[in-house]
Amino acid sequence: MKEYLIYISFIALSFILALVIESFLLPKIIAISRKKCLFDIPDERKQHGALISRLGGISFLPTLLLATTITLFISIKVNETTDYSQFYDILTDFMMVVSGVMILYIIGIKDDLTEVNYRKKFVAQFIASIFLILSGTYINNLYGLFGIYYIPMWIGAPLTILLCIFITNSINLIDGIDGLASGICGIALTFYGCLFFVSEQWTYAIICFSMLGTLTSFFYFNVLSRRNKIFMGDTGSLMLGFLLSFLGIRLAMNLPEITSFTPEGGILTIGSALFVPMFDTIKVMYARIRVHRNMFCPDRRHIHHRLIDIGFSNRATMLMIIAASLLITLTNFIALNYIDINIVFFIDLLVIYTYNKVIATARNKKREREISLARFPQKGSQNSCETLM
Predict the structure, then answer these.
(1) Is 191 within 8 Å of 160 (Cβ atoms)?
(2) Which phi and psi angles does 293 have, rounded to 5°?
(3) What pLDDT does 46 receive?
(4) Cα separation, 109 vs 113, whole angstroms
(5) DSSP code for 57
(6) What does the radius of gyration of the chain's CA atoms come to, in whole angstroms?
(7) What subcellular compartments does it reside in (predicted)?
(8) d(C-alpha 94, C-alpha 210), whole Å
(9) Do the Cβ atoms of 168 and 233 come closer than 8 Å?
């Protein structure tokens, strides 16, 4: 019990450190952006009308590394019972992950400043995902999903690369309105951090809550602040997507030599926290292919655009999607203890498909009403005049 309390204090320290460091860095970045005129230019797809910096994600990596390394240093100095052999293994793995994050961090900065072709982004994501494999992180068990359990590395490695690229792009694409990407990622980080804590993988729990502290501060500036508003940009969303890929896959791995705890349902339990952005990405890509459009060409087919088109405000849309993500995460976590993983997966797909269908129907009806009113504007005004007479 004493060990748990000690590590709870370290986790709390990492969260507070990240919160303070990020709160210090973001105003500095905003001030530099204003001085150098580094703004995100509004267009027909974007929901903002003002000139706002999209360089918030630049602060994510330094904040995460500072908060994490300071906390780990203190934990090693204070806790005399630290298992240095296990810590060494985690540290060497994390070096590879930081290398992958750094690649996406650099390409993200370039994209936020000058824009980068999507092909170059894919190349960067592929290289970064190889570092993920080198860290010893890959899908090695599906826990009965589609009837599959153990997966050899020669299958798990390419599958992990594909999933890493997919999740990274899903987070990047869901970042369309204030607070949405940071809110969904915040739920995932909280969920992953708690599971790492239960499995006694303390270092990964500290990483999760360091990133959560960073996002908490960013969420304030992105959503609640009027004077110092800022976006995370591709630097932030690409880094978050890759980091969540690593943490999620690592948590879902069957590693009896490291921990006796594995979440029930493994890969589906972990994927539940990111189910909404992943499903939305698949749906949007499929819709673009159907109309013979480049599937990487941006449009207004995402779930947040559809909800806004129906008439919901940006804030209400953000809260609805985050609430849906939280509900799926908690429901799956509980349900997988009692129901077969394939049944739960099928129910997830059915629910979110129905949810999207209802939104699409409501959107189409609103468009039909708008078209109808646009065709007969004089008839409506004439009736109004006759009523007044």
Answers:
(1) no
(2) -110, 145
(3) 53
(4) 6
(5) G
(6) 23
(7) Cell membrane
(8) 15
(9) no
